[in-house]
Write a structure and sequence with these properties.
227 residues, three-stranded mixed β-sheet, 6 helices, 47% helix
Length: 227
């Protein structure tokens, strides 16, 4: 177990990438991409849900997060006992207040630094990684759609994707389906394929594989509470 954001974080990130690369049987670039997308999903999911449902933004600052990787399993994030980072009781319709807080705790404090760490050891475009973050954000909103918090979560996600880090990485069409402008490279994993929101899926008749469908349905997930 170890924190992603610690002095040895770059070395620890390299170890994680290698562990994922071995598990999926692909390249370090693909492993870094998928590792990052899972990390983003584990952060956006609770942040979006709590903001939309309770009018709060959880404190996901790096000092309160640990990662745990077990061979053969996805990355697990552990969160110190939950506390509210911003106790905002204003209506969620005031999106700018919530969007700023979610962006700070998820993007500014976590995703941006993690991208820098990954790119010290793996040659990968930051645009691909930010596209993964956008996909994770849209996936979190999609998972909340059937719940009472769904409409607010969707509006909040649309607000967040306008921030400079995520701007231009994807959009929702008139039917409400999200389409990203980059590819997470999952099709390069043996047995992989195009994800449902992949830019390549719109250009090719090649259908998404069962593995991609499973990945689309399991991309999101909250950080677990640390014991």
């Amino acid at each position: 177990m170890g924190r992603i954001h610690e002095p040895s974080g770059a070395a620890a990130s390299a170890d994680l990438v290698e562990a994922v690369r071995t598990r999926i049987g692909s390249t370090s670039r693909v492993a870094a991409s998928l590792l990052f997308q899972g990390y983003a999903a584990h952060l956006f999911s609770p942040a979006l849900a709590v903001a939309a449902e309770a009018g709060l933004v959880p404190d996901l600052s790096p000092a309160r997060l640990w990662w745990r990787y077990i061979d053969g399993e996805p990355l697990h994030l552990l969160l110190a006992p939950a506390r509210a980072h911003h106790a905002l009781r204003e209506p969620v319709a005031d999106l700018s207040v919530f969007a700023d807080a979610v962006h700070d705790t998820v993007v500014a404090q976590n995703l941006g630094p993690f991208i820098q760490q990954l790119r010290t050891t793996v040659s990968i475009s930051p645009r691909v990684l930010w596209g993964n973050a956008a996909s994770a954000l849209a996936g979190a909103a999609r998972m909340l759609a059937p719940t009472p918090a769904g409409p607010a979560a969707h509006r909040l996600a649309r607000q967040l994707i306008r921030y400079p880090d995520l701007a231009g990485t994807g959009r929702w069409d008139s039917a409400g389906a999200f389409r990203r402008t980059t590819c997470c490279l999952f099709y390069r994993v043996p047995g992989g394929g195009y994800c449902g929101d992949c830019v390549l899926a719109a250009r090719s008749p090649r259908p998404a594989s069962p593995a991609a469908a499973r990945r689309n349905s399991s991309t999101t997930g909250p950080a677990r509470s640390a014991p």
